[in-house]
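User: C-alpha coordinates in, sequence out, please.
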Protein backbone atom coordinates (compact mmCIF):
# COMPACT_ATOMS: atom_id res chain seq x y z
CA UNK A 1 0.00 0.00 0.00
CA UNK A 2 2.08 2.87 -1.31
CA UNK A 3 0.34 6.14 -1.57
CA UNK A 4 1.93 9.15 -3.12
CA UNK A 5 2.32 12.23 -0.97
CA UNK A 6 1.17 15.52 -2.39
CA UNK A 7 3.45 18.55 -2.51
CA UNK A 8 2.00 20.05 0.70
CA UNK A 9 2.59 16.83 2.65
CA UNK A 10 6.17 16.67 1.41
CA UNK A 11 6.76 20.30 2.41
CA UNK A 12 5.27 19.63 5.85
CA UNK A 13 7.59 16.67 6.36
CA UNK A 14 10.59 18.69 5.20
CA UNK A 15 9.65 21.60 7.47
CA UNK A 16 9.30 19.30 10.47
CA UNK A 17 12.66 17.73 9.64
CA UNK A 18 14.30 21.17 9.43
CA UNK A 19 12.94 22.22 12.82
CA UNK A 20 13.97 18.88 14.32
CA UNK A 21 17.50 19.36 12.94
CA UNK A 22 17.78 22.74 14.67
CA UNK A 23 16.37 21.23 17.86
CA UNK A 24 18.90 18.39 17.84
CA UNK A 25 21.76 20.79 17.12
CA UNK A 26 20.73 23.03 20.03
CA UNK A 27 20.49 20.09 22.42
CA UNK A 28 24.00 19.01 21.41
CA UNK A 29 25.26 22.58 21.78
CA UNK A 30 23.82 22.71 25.31
CA UNK A 31 25.60 19.50 26.23
CA UNK A 32 22.35 17.58 26.61
CA UNK A 33 23.37 15.14 23.87
CA UNK A 34 26.67 13.69 22.72
CA UNK A 35 28.12 15.31 19.62
CA UNK A 36 28.19 12.41 17.13
CA UNK A 37 31.23 13.83 15.33
CA UNK A 38 33.48 14.23 18.39
CA UNK A 39 31.71 11.61 20.54
CA UNK A 40 31.90 14.11 23.43
CA UNK A 41 29.44 16.17 25.42
CA UNK A 42 30.19 19.79 24.59
CA UNK A 43 28.59 23.09 25.57
CA UNK A 44 28.60 26.25 23.45
CA UNK A 45 25.94 28.61 24.75
CA UNK A 46 26.66 31.25 22.09
CA UNK A 47 25.90 28.68 19.40
CA UNK A 48 22.71 27.67 21.23
CA UNK A 49 21.57 31.29 21.27
CA UNK A 50 22.22 31.53 17.52
CA UNK A 51 20.24 28.35 16.85
CA UNK A 52 17.29 29.58 18.92
CA UNK A 53 17.47 32.94 17.14
CA UNK A 54 17.33 31.13 13.78
CA UNK A 55 14.20 29.28 14.89
CA UNK A 56 12.65 32.57 16.05
CA UNK A 57 13.47 34.06 12.63
CA UNK A 58 11.94 31.03 10.91
CA UNK A 59 8.81 31.50 13.00
CA UNK A 60 8.57 35.18 12.04
CA UNK A 61 9.21 34.53 8.34
CA UNK A 62 6.63 31.72 8.15
CA UNK A 63 3.94 33.55 10.15
CA UNK A 64 0.46 32.87 8.74
CA UNK A 65 1.99 30.38 6.32
CA UNK A 66 2.07 27.22 8.45
CA UNK A 67 -0.57 24.67 9.25
CA UNK A 68 -1.75 24.43 12.85
CA UNK A 69 0.31 21.30 13.54
CA UNK A 70 3.50 22.85 12.09
CA UNK A 71 2.99 26.08 14.01
CA UNK A 72 2.36 24.27 17.30
CA UNK A 73 5.40 22.06 16.77
CA UNK A 74 7.65 25.03 16.04
CA UNK A 75 6.32 26.97 19.05
CA UNK A 76 6.82 23.96 21.34
CA UNK A 77 10.38 23.38 20.14
CA UNK A 78 11.29 27.05 20.62
CA UNK A 79 9.75 27.10 24.11
CA UNK A 80 11.51 23.88 25.12
CA UNK A 81 14.87 25.14 23.87
CA UNK A 82 14.49 28.50 25.61
CA UNK A 83 13.66 26.80 28.92
CA UNK A 84 16.64 24.47 28.55
CA UNK A 85 18.85 27.43 27.59
CA UNK A 86 17.94 29.26 30.80
CA UNK A 87 18.51 26.08 32.83
CA UNK A 88 21.92 25.45 31.25
CA UNK A 89 22.92 29.11 31.63
CA UNK A 90 22.19 28.87 35.36
CA UNK A 91 24.24 25.68 35.60
CA UNK A 92 27.12 27.35 33.80
CA UNK A 93 26.98 30.34 36.15
CA UNK A 94 26.94 28.02 39.18
CA UNK A 95 29.92 26.06 37.83
CA UNK A 96 31.85 29.28 37.26
CA UNK A 97 31.05 30.47 40.80
CA UNK A 98 32.36 27.20 42.23
CA UNK A 99 35.58 27.51 40.23
CA UNK A 100 36.21 31.03 41.52
CA UNK A 101 35.83 29.97 45.20
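Assistant: Sequence out:
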Amino acid sequence: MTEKLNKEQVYTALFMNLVMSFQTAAMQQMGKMVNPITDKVERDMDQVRMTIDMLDMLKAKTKNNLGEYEENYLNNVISELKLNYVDESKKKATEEDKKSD
